[in-house]
Write a structure and sequence with these properties.
This protein is mostly helical. It is 77% helix and 0% strand. It contains two helices and no strands. The longest helix has 28 residues. The protein starts with a helix and ends in a 6-residue tail after the last helix.
Length: 65
């Protein structure tokens, strides 16, 4: 059951990161709000991907959560 919760939360984070990537404007250099949005998009993408991968590995019995 814990694997399903982690997969769900991971997918939500990955979808949120895609929206943040979409609103991140690469042409705005030096804007603190824009830079923070880009960093937050990368962090949510990495955390969401790790949650999904680790929960799939745990479900298959490769690792224990």
């Amino acid at each position: 059951m814990i694997e399903g919760i982690f997969i769900t939360l991971g997918v939500i984070l990955i979808i949120a990161s895609r929206f943040l990537y979409g609103t991140y404007d690469i042409t705005l250099g030096g804007d603190n709000n824009n830079d923070a949005m880009g960093v937050f998009a990368v962090i949510t993408d990495i955390v969401g991907t790790l949650m999904v991968v680790l929960s799939i590995l745990s479900y298959n019995g490769i690792i224990k959560l």
